[in-house]
Write a structure and sequence with these properties.
- One of its GO terms (biological process) is lipid metabolic process.
- Keywords: Membrane, Oxidoreductase, Transmembrane, Transmembrane helix.
- Belongs to the fatty acid desaturase type 1 family.
- By secondary structure, this protein is mainly α.
- A hairpin with a 2-residue loop joins strand 2 and strand 3.
- The strands form 4 sheets. A two-stranded parallel sheet has the order 1-4. The chain has a two-stranded antiparallel ribbon with strand order 2-3. A two-stranded parallel sheet has the order 5-6.
- The chain is globular, with a radius of gyration of 25 Å.
- The chain is built from 17 helices and 8 strands.
């Protein structure tokens, strides 16, 4: 797999101290931050060699090793290339300097990327409506052995409804804010997703992207939570392993229906959204069962719904999860680094990108959520021209997914992630199974 690399040397934080045979050596490096911490990676440690020199009978002299020399820029490039190939990335960007702010990045975007175009907005609604209708027709007419293809298409098409509601929640669909709330609520109904609860939680995800405890999207498992009970351990291994591609179902259920998770000034709007969802379930589901039976409900609603959650889970994983992308405490967190360098651009087959309205072009969306989905590619091009060497990019591949599912598990301050296989090997057979059976193509 071809890799494009941004030239940069590794930066270490503060003085590094080594003690060899009782002697302390201090190497001072420039301070800074990096997505890849040199001390967390395999290092070329000098071998301590012993020389025996006969001076007098019974006495020897031992030579002491020299202090570790700092890594050269060429070492950094070689290591980045190795990581790029190992993880399934096209490019691993270099570290964004600490003095760069999010406003600096936004100011390089052309003003046109923020413009709302009603024609383009409603075109996206037309694309999702017609592709979803076509999917339902395919399900109705397909023989049983073609149903998986029909479900895959329909699940991808209904994901487009989510992206439309997503634009509405970010106030980038229409200048009419009441219309946005109505369209967003209706777009989420086939997914039985409550619009307002999701909007409130998603806004916090953007405000706290890759912040260790505050981000409301997925983040690494904390060791103390992992150790709470044997049952929890086994459940979380499966959740972050084999069933992770549909784990957004758990996120949907846990985060969006519990009123205690919302502020008092949000409760009113949350209740309206929940009422809409429950009304759809109370009216829509019985109508589907009445017309086509329970099997029809599974065929026409449940399977496309699972397909949507596959994409919801996959997009979320790929956008913010990689061994070299850190989650940081609120004290260390840097918004520019989190949004530009902590978000991944990933290319998919073009039909998926069309049906999902370019949600995969995700870096500009995190730089500014006010950019409509139909302007994301224009914004991405501007970011590449000005900040390209700091960006992480990939094309969807099996190695990328395998890395996420088998490596990115438990939080570790120095290494970002450690695998369940290292933390709890006795219950990590699901992870070992994935290593054996998942393809490793990049």
């Amino acid at each position: 797999m071809a890799c494009r690399l941004a030239d940069s040397s590794f930066l270490l934080k503060g003085p590094q101290q080594k003690r060899i045979h009782g002697h302390r050596f201090v190497s001072l490096y420039p301070t800074g931050t990096s997505l890849l911490k040199w001390e967390a990676l395999p290092q070329h440690k000098p071998k301590t060699q012993k020389y025996v020199i006969p001076l007098r009978k019974g006495k020897i002299v031992k030579a002491v090793a020299s202090p570790i020399t700092p890594p050269l820029p060429s070492d950094s490039a070689e290591r980045r290339q190795e990581l790029c190939e190992n993880y399934g990335f096209r490019q691993i960007g270099e570290s964004l300097p600490d003095n760069i702010t999010l406003k600096n990045i936004i100011d390089t975007l052309p003003k046109s990327v923020f413009e709302i175009d009603n024609m383009k907005a409603w075109k996206s609604v037309l694309i999702s409506t017609t592709s979803y209708a076509l999917g339902l027709f395919m399900i109705a007419k397909s023989p049983w052995y073609l149903l998986p293809l029909a479900w895959a298409w329909t699940g991808t098409a209904v994901t487009g409804f989510f992206v439309i509601g997503h634009d509405c929640a970010h106030k980038s669909f229409s200048k009419n804010k009441l219309l946005e709330d109505i369209v967003g609520t209706l777009a989420f109904l086939p997914l039985i997703y409550p619009y307002e609860p999701w909007r409130f939680k998603h806004d916090r995800h953007h405000a706290k992207t890759n912040m260790l405890n505050e981000d409301t999207a997925w983040h690494p498992v904390m060791k103390k939570h992992f150790d709470e009970s044997p049952f929890f351990k086994k459940a979380i291994v499966f959740g972050y392993g084999p069933i992770r591609p549909i784990m957004s179902i758990s996120h949907w259920l846990i985060w969006h229906f519990n009123l205690s998770k919302f502020r008092s000034n949000e409760i009113g709007r949350v209740k309206i959204s929940l009422a809409c969802v429950f009304a759809f379930m109370a009216i829509g589901w019985p109508l589907i069962v009445y017309k086509v039976g329970i099997v029809g409900w599974i065929k026409f609603w449940l399977m496309p719904w699972l397909g949507y959650h596959f994409w919801m889970s996959t997009f979320t994983m790929v956008h913010h999860t990689a061994p070299h992308i850190p989650f940081k405490s609120s004290e260390e967190w840097n918004p520019a680094q989190a949004q530009l360098s902590g978000t991944v651009h990933c290319d998919y087959p073009r039909w998926i990108e069309i049906l999902c309205h370019d949600i995969n072009v995700h870096i500009p969306h995190h730089v500014s959520s006010k950019i409509p989905s139909y302007n994301l590619r224009m914004a991405h091009k501007a970011l590449q021209e000005n900040w390209g060497k700091y960006m992480n990019e990939a094309s969807w591949n099996w190695r990328l997914m395998k890395t996420i599912l088998t490596v990115c598990h438990v939080y570790n301050e120095e290494r970002n992630y450690i695998s369940f296989e290292e933390v709890a090997p006795e219950i990590s057979e699901p992870i070992r199974f994935l290593r054996r059976v998942m393809p490793d193509y990049a």
